[in-house]
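*** Fold description ***
***
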Amino acid sequence: MRIDEALNRYKDYLKISTDTSHLTIKKYVGVVRRFLLATGMTFDMNKMNMWLAEISKDKNCNYYRYALKHFLVSIGRKDLSEKVMKTRKKPRKKVFKYVPKDTMQKIINSLEGVYQKVAFMQIKTGARVSEVITLRAENIDYQINENLIQIKIGVNKSLSKRKKEKVLYLSRKYENMLKSWSKRPFGYLFLPNKYETYNEEQIFPKVDSIRRELDKKLQKLGEWHNVEGLSSHYLRHLYADYFLKAGGDPVYLKKALGHERLDTTDRKSTRL
């Protein structure tokens, strides 16, 4: 079996057999491609474990093992997929420390351009970074409430995890700022006009590039402010903190963060 044939079979398996978002599929395929090129399509447990140990140094190796697990099932090697998961290492638990609002505001003010806008929207709405980057002007409703702005996610070519639609709300005091980002009554707020003609697969590299660059900038700024591991994902935890501390409804928070269960939402906060 050739590498391209194995990858195509893997893509079809993910699309049909698993509840996996398009963004995750792209990442999983990238992991498997690296594995196939590194091992030369040799499916030996020792070589697989050596490769996993090398690629996942100082990271959560479970992510890579899940990608490999699905791949092995897709090519009819379920026996190996079970062994891969049995030998996994326990992931390092990440601790999210509470960051005071004034400190977080200084960090966001230190960012520039699209990175500042994306980070601001994440800390104010709890949206995932891909959801913010693909915000669209026509999905923003300024008339629905006198105090709040409604933002629809996962509709009209905007991305969301598992393509699920949800509604977020933003304080009306940010109306003028949000309108200044909307150059037209429709289209992406943070992506060039040419992306209007692109599909999800073509948009993904740009979204992922912005996310990775934002994470680098946040990590560097976080170190200056004594916040370890600050990232775009961290901002979702901080949004949950600020929302609950202000007396917000946990049920709304669950919907805003896109969680299936309330206990998942509870883990998002740093539990002051």
Observations:
- The first strand starts at residue 140 and ends at 141.
- DSSP finds 13 helices and three strands in the chain.
